[in-house]
Amino acid sequence: MRVKRKSDFVIIGQDIKDDAMIMILDEGEEGQFGYVFRVQLPNADTKKMRINNLSLSKLIQAWGDETEKWVGKAAKVKVMETFAFGKEIKYVVLTPES
Fold this sequence. Notes:
The chain is mainly beta. It has one helix spanning 53-63, and strands at residues 21-24, 29-31, 34-40, 46-51, 74-84, 87-96.
């Protein structure tokens, strides 16, 4: 049996993988640790996703800074790795699809 972690938030490697496409479903909200948006995953499930500053910059450059205009737009997932806090971590960079 394959074990899956349960979360309201996107889990890298389980919910999304490199080169996957997601769709922004709401205008997001500013949370304690940055902006959080509801996204549609490749399997049509929906989850919350924290969007990092690099991805925010790319999305703002392509779609503008009014997030209500992002609803229904697609972005491509690039899974990256870095070394931080004494361990290797994965993070997502989103590239807007036109």
